[in-house]
């Protein structure tokens, strides 16, 4: 399945519509309704500390709601905050990887801060160097009529929107049936490895 890269209009992009994103109220919504959009906008407008602090606070809150919910369904179990929080645990990390509820709040907050700092570096990079296609980390979307449901690359899309771009280049677009087939193939590949 070698798909070409397309450029899509940012106003036609919707957030991934997985179960827990929908439950949080932003799954399937347009960019301006994504919860991290205001933090990016606040940061770009110069309110850097406040944006960072609010973004971290939101991630910690979401982590407590969704830390035992599968990442594949929009949860945070074994997602970025979970993974980064383990950087701050000195004992048996595997125990905390398997049971996210065991992680203390300080480690979760530090993990969320690490994630936010990486997103801020992405903001800086796009502002200073322009948008660079990341072939190692492609953005996928599923066509839904004239709209596109992103399956990744949400922060890149939000940053581009905030700083005034009209479109997002380098998106691999799938139809719904082909996307479901691709997910099935990925699961089979994981089982075989």
The total number of structural domains is 1
- In N-to-C order, the SSE pattern is EEHHHHHHEEHEH
The number of strands is 5
Q: What composes the largest sheet?
A: 5 strands, mixed
Low-confidence stretches: none
Structural class: alpha/beta
Radius of gyration equals 17 Å
Judging from the principal axes of the Cα atoms, what is the shape? globular
DSSP helical segment count:
8
Q: What is the average per-residue confidence, as pLDDT, rounded to a whole number?
A: 93
Helix content: 40-55%
State the end-to-end distance.
20 Å
Strand share of the residues?
Answer: 5-15%
Task: Summarize the helices and strands and which ones pair or pack.
Layout: E1 5-9, E2 13-14, H1 19-24, H2 37-44, H3 48-66, H4 80-85, H5 93-98, H6 105-129, E3 139-144, E4 147-150, H7 154-162, E5 167-174, H8 176-192
Parallel strand pairs: 2-4, 3-5
Antiparallel strand pairs: 1-5, 3-4
Helix pairs in contact: 2-3, 2-7, 3-6, 6-7
3D structure, described in words:
With 193 residues, the chain is α/β, with parallel strands linked by helices. The chain has one domain. It is built from eight helices and five strands. Strands 1-5-3-4-2 form a five-stranded mixed β-sheet. The protein is globular and about 45 Å long. The relative contact order is 0.17. The mean pLDDT is 93.
């Amino acid at each position: 399945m070698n798909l070409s890269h397309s450029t899509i209009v940012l106003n036609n992009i919707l957030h991934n519509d997985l179960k827990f994103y929908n439950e949080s109220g932003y799954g399937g919504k347009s960019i301006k309704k994504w919860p991290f959009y205001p933090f990016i906008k606040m940061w770009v407008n110069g309110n850097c500390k406040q944006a960072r602090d609010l973004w971290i606070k939101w991630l910690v809150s979401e982590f407590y709601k969704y830390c035992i919910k599968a990442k594949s369904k929009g949860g945070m179990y074994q997602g970025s905050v979970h993974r980064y929080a383990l950087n701050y645990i000195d004992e048996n990390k595997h125990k905390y990887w398997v049971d996210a509820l065991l992680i203390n709040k300080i480690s979760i907050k530090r993990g969320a801060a690490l994630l936010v700092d990486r997103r801020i570096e992405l903001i800086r990079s796009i502002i200073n160097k322009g948008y660079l296609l990341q072939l190692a980390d492609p953005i996928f979307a599923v066509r839904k009529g004239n709209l596109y449901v992103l399956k990744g690359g949400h922060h890149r899309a939000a940053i581009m929107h905030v700083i005034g771009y009209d479109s997002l280049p380098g998106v691999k677009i799938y139809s719904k049936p082909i996307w479901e087939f691709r997910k099935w193939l990925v699961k089979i590949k994981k089982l075989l490895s």
